[in-house]
Amino acid sequence: MFAVYLYKLFRNTFLQSISGAVVFLFLFLLPFICHSQELPNARKYITNGGYALSKNGKTIFSKNLKKLFIPASTIKLVTSLAALEILGQDYRFSTWIYFDRKRKTLYVKGSGDPYLVSENVRKITQSIASKGIVEIFDIVLDDSAFALEHKETKGSDNSKNPYDAVCSALAVNFNSLPLKVLHKAKTSSPEAQTPYLKIMGKIGKELSSGYHRVNIDAFPRYTPLSNGILYSGQLFQALLRENGVTVTGNIKHGKVPVNTPLLHHYIANENISDLVQMCLLSSSNFMANQLFLALGAKVYGFPATWGKSQKAMNIFIHSSLELNDNQIYMVEGAGLSMENVVSPEAMILVLNKFKPFASLIPLKYGVQMKSGTLRESGVFCYAGYIQQKKSQFPFVILLNQKRNTRYKILKILHNQ
Questions:
Q1: Bridge partners, residue 341, by sequence
Q2: For residues 71 and 103, what is the distance between their CA atoms, to the nearest angstrom?
Q3: Which residues have a Cβ under 8 Å from the Cβ of 384 and sit 6 or more positions away?
Q4: How far apart are CA 41 and CA 18, in angstroms?
Q5: How many CB atoms are located within 10 Å of the residue 220 CB?
Q6: Does the chain have fewer CB atoms within 10 Å around its N or its C terminus?
């Protein structure tokens, strides 16, 4: 009996030792089993940055996976995904036209349409003329659907470049003005769809000869109205006259009075899917932040504010994406601000959720991706999908360094 006891004791001790060794070995190897690998040949191209490549929902290669970086325009993918989910793919912006027949006053009320371009304003004015309106005195522009805490977007320098154009509930042509400056500052419109406007002559005097597209609100005001409102009013004036409507009064800024009859409800032809595709292709900061502001208005009601949109985006990030502030943080939707940060891990998750809409992302170097650049600040990024046969592999490259080596890293990831 004693011999049997010794046998059982030895056997149990031996099995426990083996079991303990297996558990220890598993726990020791777990980080290596679960974590993605770093690519040695990419190390020389990174001084402050990270990347990730995903396959079947799992990250297989990465560096600094959880570290936060400034994403520049790649953050437009997050804004686009939120717009597609919160506003809906088929959502369309509206512009309302009211007319006081007694005072012959036309009111134009916007809701933040990012694509109220000359061609669409022409459609609106054609509809006004078709309703028997032959004479208008004043044109009043109502942009009260936005009540922004600060005019400029965070991160914007309010430069003359069109990428710094300010957001507004009523803005035409992305709040940027096209013009051609000839000899002795004589100006003309370089676009067939946009007629010559008086404001072109004013701004043209401050520019050199050649073709320009400028942020209209970066120039001094020429009237008590903001340049953006003046620009919108002059475009409506010109296109109304083009359609045979006499316009004799002034351009004014104000709200539509209660009980003013609605003359025309313009619903944009372009839905959110169309706008996202155009926004990502052109990398329009104006369009991205108009969508960003629309999110806040959708969730919390008009007027749109930066605060409402930041809150709505924060809820989307936490609830829909299941991410936290240590993984992604946004203050605006275009990527202008250095306060926007995202980790490679978070961007991969965004890309995995974006897959149903991947066709909206433009091609660059044969790869479906969005780039992001803040050159003077040393921000160089890519995010998108590497296509292999019928498979899509989400990837992200986030560099916050002086050297722009993102294309070399992309080639290395592509070779994997």
A1: 329
A2: 51
A3: 351, 361, 367, 368, 369, 370, 394, 395
A4: 39
A5: 8
A6: N
User: Which of 85, 83, 63, 87 has the alpha carbon at shortest distance from 348?
Assistant: 63
Chain segment 74-87, per-residue pLDDT in tens: 999 999 999 999 99
Q: Report pLDDT digits (tens) over 299-343.
A: 999 999 999 999 999 999 999 999 999 999 999 999 999 999 999
Assigned token pair, 400: 């916050």
Indicate the burial class of 302 (C-beta count within 10 angstroms; 0-12, 13-18, 19 or more).
Answer: middle
CA distance readout (Å), 411 to 102, 348, 374, 386, 402? 67, 18, 21, 10, 19
- Architecture of domain 40-89+272-415 in this structure: 3-Layer(aba) Sandwich (3.40)
Tracing tokens 């600040």 back to the chain, one arrives at 377
pTM (2 decimals)? 0.91
Sketch the domain layout of the chain as residue ranges: 40-89+272-415, 94-267
- State how far the Cα of 282 lies from the Cα of 163, in Å rounded to an integer: 10
Q: Does the domain spanning 94-267 belong to CATH 3.40.47.10? A: no
Report the alpha-carbon distance of residue 65 to residue 348 in Å, rounded. Answer: 10
pLDDT in tens, 340-349: 999 999 999 9
Cα radius of gyration (the chain): 28
